[in-house]
Amino acid sequence: MSGVGSPDFFYREAQRLGYVARSAFKLIQIQKQYKLITPGASVLDLGCAPGAWLQVACQNLGPLERGGSVVGIDIKDVKVPSSHCDSRVRTVCADVMSLLKERARALSPQGRGFSVILSDMCPSVSGIATKDAALSCKLGMRALSLAVGKISSVDSDDFEIEQFLSGIETDADETGVLKHGGNLVIKFLENEDVPAFGKFCKLRFKKVSWLRPKATRSCSREIYLICQSMK
């Protein structure tokens, strides 16, 4: 089966255009709709393997003279793709779940934080819906915590948020690594707890949206939380 709506279309297009994975088209659509990455931006890509989002992020930095940077972090050792990437892209092998905010911040230009944080992290799907959903929320919570800093009950009355946080927040650094006015993208697997994240983010960002990109496989429960302009 072929066509724009078929799973095979994006795979073929990725090969034709030099992207290392079809997931590139998810970020391409996000960028086209929300324009999160501007020329000269500093971008942190959490769970960057195999590197497709590194490619798209770099393409949106503008010409080399505009500056900017893209830092990819993954538990795997990821090689920077040769196409669509330049000297402004680098990768770090680290476990995001145990990554200290201080270390993450040090990876940004002048150690001042990032203007965009992208999280395409997803658990290895077991097929057990409740287990996969819980792991997805845990990864999403970690990305959110790295971005905005320590989250307390003062910030949210959502029990789910506090419960997820209690299981991962061991970093004494209370300051996030996302700059004021910065943008954040987090992937989740749809489940009953996911809306709580959007509700919380509405307190921290000027605009919050949900998107299921066209390149998402029909069998997938993936959905993206798009947060614009951190207050």
Automatic annotation (TrEMBL):
Pfam families assigned to the protein according to its UniProt record, in alphabetical order: FtsJ
Gene source species: Rhynchospora breviuscula
Gene3D superfamilies documented for this protein: Vaccinia Virus protein VP39 (3.40.50.150)
Active site: 187 (proton acceptor)
UniProt keyword annotations, A-Z: Methyltransferase, rRNA processing, S-adenosyl-L-methionine, Transferase
Record-stated family: Belongs to the class I-like SAM-binding methyltransferase superfamily. RNA methyltransferase RlmE family.
Domain of life: Eukaryota
Occurrences of domain Ribosomal RNA methyltransferase FtsJ (ranges): 19-228
Keyword Aminoacyl-tRNA synthetase: no
Aminoacyl-tRNA synthetase listed as a keyword: no
Record-given protein name: rRNA methyltransferase 2, mitochondrial
InterPro entries, per the entry: RNA_methyltr_RlmE, RNA_MeTrfase_FtsJ_dom, rRNA-MeTfrase_E, SAM-dependent_MTases_sf
Sample GO molecular function, one term: rRNA (uridine-2'-O-)-methyltransferase activity
